[in-house]
Design goal:
The complex is a heterodimer of chains A (279) and B (185). Chain A contains 8 helices and 10 strands. With 279 residues, chain A is of the alpha/beta class. Chain A has 2 domains: 99 residues, no CATH class; 126 residues, no CATH class. In chain A, helix 1 packs across helix 4 and helix 2 runs antiparallel to helix 3. Chain A starts with a strand and ends with a strand. In chain B, 24% of the residues lie in helices and 26% in strands. Chain B contains 6 helices and 7 strands; from the N terminus they run βαβαβαβαβαββα. In chain B, strands 2-3-4-5-7 form a 5-stranded mixed barrel. In chain B, helix 1 links the parallel strand 1 and strand 2. The chains are: A alpha/beta (279), B alpha/beta (185). Chains A and B meet through helix 3, helix 6 and helix 8 of A and helix 5 and helix 6 of B. Bound molecules: iron/sulfur cluster (SF4). Iron/sulfur cluster sits at the interface of chains A and B.
Chain lengths: 279, 185
């Protein structure tokens, strides 16, 4: 058994929450630069210019990239031979999140669903655990804004719908979302599993590098094809028209029940903020 | 596409000359308000009580800023998605509200209200909150402090950069998605 002090978890998580909100991953920045070059519509070019300037501003001033610092979502791969000492790992991650959001002047966006009263500390963090062999703990942190999350959907299709039905749903979803989720977006897709697994997989798929290829060449082909199709929509950056409606489509596939064909579409805005740490 | 420098409060004449796609720089005072604040504004109107600020010629910015770090008037302050305020906007336009600032598409009802009452809908770049914050020179909570990021703030802005999305002549800047081309693949 390897023991990791709870304070280490708290400090690392706090640090991740702050840096995720101030620095975009390099692959996302590269896609902005590429987009700025590619776009012919001056309004679309200008959006990319502003996004690049915004990222620089955020780095320089320490202001978060976006005022919606998101609900804090964590994916944790917990080694079976690792344990956190001092408190439970769930509590440690939550305390780290609260500390990070407080000390980083990040917006607290969590509220009671009925009274709409702000919980005040952005908590509780949303944490998905996975047990894996080994003695390490790997934590991904994602700052997931409400605007793009609201445009996401889960749909339980009958098997007869097939890929054609799924593809149509995904494209329609992006079209209907239009300018709302701050395009250019990323689209995380969960196919198969069941109701909740499809949703979790669609979100986890968003953690992949923008330009990585799916290990299964058949799925990789689908990702490329849907991406190209979506970019024919001409929604464009912030809905102003252009070639860049979507920067990447990432699909996760899991076996499902004989009776169903679950689909989850998780929309992620261009402010694709995430970090990871291995303890 | 024209460029305009406007000062608040806005007049009918200011609004009439705006066309979808125009770039507008606003200087003066604007008010923040999003979901929970709008609900309270409308509840206040229902009770017949006075609103916390004068709607005549006013601009409401749909934003819930991040906390101000030391030495700054406000944190990041980019737009939130506007459709959630669609149920409230027509009534407020009827009372003199000249413009709203946000991101994303508005309903037919809001656009009709803007035509009728001479108002415009402005887009600010979503997700550019750190950049937009630079044009905000002062911020003061004037109502509903308990709502935290959703409280109503009076912002002093200088050349706040906006795009006209919907003008008062039924113009629309957002593209209509080309579904046919996309589905054909
Ligand atoms: S959709 Fe993303 S970029 Fe846009 S306001 Fe929300 S969190 Fe920020």
């Amino acid at each position: 058994m390897r023991t990791i002090p709870a304070q280490t978890v708290i400090d690392k998580v706090a640090e991740m929450c702050i840096s995720a909100n101030r620095e975009l991953p390099e692959d996302v920045m590269a896609s902005f630069r590429k987009g700025q070059e590619e776009e012919e519509n001056p309004a679309a070019k200008e959006v990319f210019r502003q996004l690049i300037e915004n990222a620089e501003m955020s780095k320089d001033t320490g202001l978060p990239l976006c005022q919606d610092c998101g609900l804090a979502v964590f994916f944790v791969e917990m080694g079976e031979e690792a344990r956190v000492e001092g408190m439970g790992i769930r509590q440690a991650i939550n305390e780290g999140m609260v500390k990070g959001y407080q000390e980083g002047y990040l917006r607290k966006s969590s509220c009671d669903p009925f009274t709409r009263k702000n919980t005040g500390d952005n908590g509780p963090a949303i944490i998905h655990f996975d047990l894996v062999p080994g003695d390490k703990i790997k934590i991904w942190m994602m700052a997931k804004g409400g605007g793009s999350e609201n445009m996401s959907r889960v749909m339980m299709f009958p098997p007869a719908a097939g890929w054609k039905g799924l593809r149509e749903f995904i494209i329609n979803r992006v079209a209907e979302a239009g300018p709302n989720p701050c395009p250019p977006i990323l689209v995380g897709v969960g196919i198969g599993g069941n109701f909740e697994l499809a949703a979790i997989n669609s979100k986890k798929a968003l953690l992949r590098e923008l330009d990585d290829k799916h290990a299964d060449p058949e799925v990789a082909k689908l990702e490329e094809e849907v991406l190209a199709a979506i970019n024919k929509l001409n929604v464009g950056p912030m809905g102003l028209g252009g070639k860049n409606t979507c920067l990447a489509v990432k699909i996760a596939v899991a076996p499902c029940h004989l009776a169903s064909l679950p689909l989850a579409v998780n929309i992620q805005c261009h402010s694709a903020r995430h970090k990871e740490v291995v303890l | 596409m024209a460029e305009h420098h406007l000062k608040t409060p806005l007049t009918d004449a200011d609004i009439e000359k705006l066309k979808s796609g125009d770039v507008v720089y606003i200087t003066g005072t604007i008010y923040t308000g999003r979901d929970a604040a709008h609900k309270r504004l409308v509840d206040t109107l229902d009770k017949g009580d006075p609103l916390p600020f004068d709607l005549k010629g006013a601009l409401i910015y749909y934003v819930g800023p991040s906390p101000a770090p030391p030495g700054r008037p406000i944190g990041s302050a980019g737009p939130t998605t506007s459709y959630r305020m669609d149920t409230y906007a027509p009534r407020l336009h009827g009372l003199g509200l000249k413009g709203t600032i946000g991101k994303g598409r508005r309903s037919r009802e809001v656009r009709d209200a803007m035509i009728k009452h001479k108002a415009a809908y402005f887009g600010a770049t979503g997700g550019a909150g750190a950049l937009l914050s630079q044009a905000i020179k002062g911020a003061k909570v004037i109502a509903y402090d308990d709502l935290g990021p959703e409280a109503i703030r009076e912002l002093t802005v200088e050349n706040f950069p906006l795009l006209v999305i919907n003008d008062c002549h039924d113009g629309e800047l957002y593209t209509t998605p080309n579904l046919e081309a996309a589905l054909a693949g």
